[in-house]
Amino acid sequence: MVSIRRNILLGRDIDLSDNSSERWKTMAMVAIGQGKMFTRPLAAVMHIFVYVGFILINMEVLEILIDGVFGTHRIFASPLGIIYDGAMAFFEILAFLVIVACVVFLFRRYIVKVKRFSGFEMRAFPVKDATTILFVEIVLMSCLLLLNAVDKNLQNLQAEHYIQAGTFPISSFIVPMFSHMSVDSLEMIERIAWWGHIIGILLFMNYLPYSKHFHIIMAFPNTYYSNLNAKGKLNNMESVTTEVKLMMDPSAQPPEGYQAPTSFGVKDVTDLTWKNLMDAYTCTECGRCTSVCPANTTGKLLSPRKIMMDTRDRLEEVGANIDKNKTFVDDNKNLHDYISEQELWACTTCQACVQICPVNINPMEIIVEMRRFKVMEQSSAPQELNSMFTNIENNGAPWQMAQSARFDWSQE
Ligand code: SF4
Ligand code: SF4
Questions:
Q1: N or C: which end of the chain has fewer CB within 10 A?
Q2: Considering the entire predicted model, what is its pTM?
Q3: Could you tell me the distance, in angstroms and rounded to a whole number, from the CA of residue 283 to the centre of ligand 1?
Q4: pLDDT averaged over the chain?
C-alpha cells in the first residue's frame, strides 16, 4: 500500500481540497450509499450483500481473533447477553447472503456470460482475479458457518470450554451432520474452520493491493476527490491560456512564479494528475463504462475500462523501475505504447463512461490529455482534424472557404 501511495503521488499536483462538505456528501452517496450502483438493480442488491457482509462480519472476526490469541471462547457473549445472540444470527444470515451473491456473480460471469465481463482487456490476470475473489469469499463465509455448526454441537455436548452462546439460524441446518461425532473430532473440525477463516482473511488482506478488489478501500478517497464540476466541462489548459494571453497583450505580465511549459498534454503517467492515477487504482474492472461507450458499442477499438487498466499497468511498470533503480531510469516507453491512437481518436467525449462509473472515475480525461499531447507535441491528428485545424488557422472557421465568402449564401 505504501508503494501504491508513492505511485499515485508520482502524478502532477492538483488542488482538490475545496468544498469539503460537498465532497463528504459525494463520498457518502457514492461510496457508502452505493448510489450509482442502482442503475443495474440486481447487481446492486447482490453487491450490497457482499459489501455489508464484508464490513459487518469483521466484528465477528474481531471476537474470533481475540479468542484465538487469549484462549477464551466467545468472549463477547457474556458482556453483550441477548444482543450477542441477535448479532450472531444477523452475521449468519449475512454470511449466507454473501455466499448467494457470490454464486450469482459466478453464474453471471460463467453461465449467463454478461457481455461487459469480457473484452480484449479481460484476459489472464483480470479474469483469474475476479474468480479468485468470489471463491475466497465463498470459502471464508463457509468456514464461518462450519465453525458455528461445530461449535453448536460442542455446546450441545456440554464440552468443556464451549459456553452456551449464540443463535445460529443458518448453520443450525448443518448441525445434525456432525451430531454423531466425538468431542475430539468436533474440536479438530472447529480448529480447521477457525484457521481456514483466519488464514483466508490474512491472505486476502495481503492479496488486496494487487487486486481490483482494492476498490473496497480506494472507493472512499476516490469519491471524496471526485470532480465536482459540471460533467460537460472540459478543463482548459492553463499553460496554453497563459501563453496566448501573453502573446496577445505585450504589456501583460506572467503570473508570479510562472514558468513556460516544457510540454503539453500527457505523454506518460507522470504527466497525469494524482487523481487520474488514483482513479486507475480504484477501477473495479466492472466494465459498465465500456458497456455504455458509444465508440465501443459501434465496434471501435476503444474501451474506457482498458484505458484505466493500461494506465495502472504502466504506472506499476514505472513504480517497479523506481524500486529497482532508486530513481526512474528512462525505459524508452510511455503511456502511448499502451493506448493506441486509434483508441484515443475513437472517443466522442460524450462522458457516458464518467456518468456511469460507480466509483466516479474519469477515463475520458486521460483520453483528452493524451490527445492534447498528440496534437500539440507531435502535430499528429487524424486527417479530418488536420484539415479543420488548417482551416481555422487560415480562415478563422472550420470550413474550407475564405472569410470574405461567408455571406455568399445570402446572395440568392
Ligand atoms: S472505470 Fe468505472 S465503470 Fe469503468 S470499469 Fe472501472 S470502475 Fe467500472
Ligand atoms: S467519453 Fe469517450 S470513452 Fe467515455 S463513453 Fe464517451 S466515447 Fe466512450
A1: C
A2: 0.87
A3: 5
A4: 91
**Helical H segments across 271-380, by residue range:** 274-282, 288-292, 294-297, 304-325, 341-346, 352-356, 363-378
Q: Which residue range(s) make up the domain with 304?
A: 264-400
Residue 255 or residue 407, greater confidence: 407
The answer to whether 212 and 280 have CB atoms below 8 angstroms apart is: no
What is the average pLDDT across 163-175?
88
Q: Which atom of ligand 2 is nearest to the CA of 307?
A: 3
Ligand 2 binding site (Cβ under 6 Å of any ligand atom): 293-295, 302, 304, 347-353, 363-364
- Whether 23 and 171 map to the same domain: the answer is yes
Choice from 233, 290, 350 to test ligand 2 binding pocket (greatest atom count within 8 A of CB): 350
- Report how many helices (DSSP H) and strands (DSSP E) the chain contains, helices first: 17, 0
Beta bridge partners of 12: 273
Domain count, the chain: 2
Q: Which ligand is nearest to the CA of 304?
A: 2
Q: Residue 237: which pLDDT band, with cuts at 50, 70 and 90?
A: confident
Q: Report pLDDT for 64.
A: 86
In a domain, 192, yes or no: yes
Whether 210 and 325 map to the same domain: the answer is: no
271 and 366 in a single domain? The answer is yes
